[in-house]
Amino acid sequence: xxxxxxxxxxxxEPFKPLKGxxxxxxxxxxxxxNYPHIGNYRAxxxxxxxxxxxxxxxxxxxxxxxxxxxxxxxxxxxQKEGISLKEFTTRYEKAFFEDIKTLNILPADKxxxxxxxxxxxxxxxxxxxxxxxxxxxxxxxxxYDIGKFKDYGKLANIDTSKLxxxxxxxxxxxEYSKEDCQDFALWKAYDKADGNxxxxxxxxxxxxxxxVECSAMSMKYLGKTFDIHCGGIDLIFPHNxxxxxxxxxxxxxxxxxxxxxxxxxxVNGQKMSKSLGNFYTLRDVLAKGHPAVAIRYLLLSTHYRxxxxxxxxxxxxxxxxxxxxNELVRKLQDVKDGEKSVLIxxxxxxxxxxxxxAMDDDLNISEALAAVFDFVKSMNNHIDNSTxxxxxxxxxxxxxxxxxxxxxVMNFAAEEELPTELTKLIEERENLRKEKKFAEADKVRxxxxxLGIQLDDTPEGVRWKKVS
Length: 468
Description:
The chain is an alpha/beta fold. Helices cover 44% and strands 16% of the residues. Helix 13 packs antiparallel against helix 14.
């Protein structure tokens, strides 16, 4: 049975969707004030792995990922550049969609923008005021009274009875620490510092608080109660905790059934920081010549609830792992029946069972990958000893294709096309070998290696593969 660790209950729980085999999934998307860093992409790839595995298991997934295009940071940084909020956020929105395509992340069903859902945010705020859960402060902003929500702090494990004495009573900032836990802003009254970023509404001129944005967008597209909400552990407080309070305060119903949060990403064993010189966007890493598929593999290969230590050596190891997978695919494609061929149906079934067992256990990707590479080792032994028939080889490829609907890292193209100039070099080497000019042929081979193409002479003829 598929189980997830629910942050809300702090327990591993069997997964039972609210509506049969249909899953409502919401994940916090980018805030458009900069290019997402690799820590952000760890979160996005975790959600991608989750969604891909749900699809692998036969569920239908409706995935909503929000786009935060108005908040404290987007306003602050657009003003620094002296351009409009829309012009500023459009730049980073375009980059985000380019990046998720680069990393082979499946697109969400919808990417709602905060600025397109002001009406829904105002409606929630007004309803909370009518219920006496929200109130207008002396600064004109509207705040949520956390004392009116009995379960406030449950997700974040905060004892609200022990809040520090002498606090202001409310906080207007979007982000703050547990120590500053107080009434939070649903609607921020217009401030000159916001410039021309405001909306004229029935609750006054101003803009929404960050937290109400996600409540409005998630419930509009997934309903007042839905199955899974994902995010990084940094979003548990205050963001996700406040989402629960305002959503359940409005509807009187449970907001989310399962809360899943991924751990921090470290870089070379340290928290990512510009001051330490270890802060990288995806584009920074790609610019160093590292392939996107290896970055994807590295970011998904550690269990989502464990800290992931990102290193460039780790990317090289990921690239080698992908190379082993693709090399097996190529070898399986070349299998021909022989005298010692045997059926390996049971081995494929065992590998599939081991993969599923690991992934069913709260997406235990480390164990799942171990099962896959045990299978790789076994298949290589069969191929080396000619104890696999063509039918079994095709079945093995089909198994790997199914696995890769979850991983998204393998290449099943029988033969990739090379640029004409490289093809000509391979042909030139073959002609030199036929003429027994082996020294000259070796020079051509070395030149191809410098260009990233490795040649292997096999009984079936020369084969090539890309290398770093």
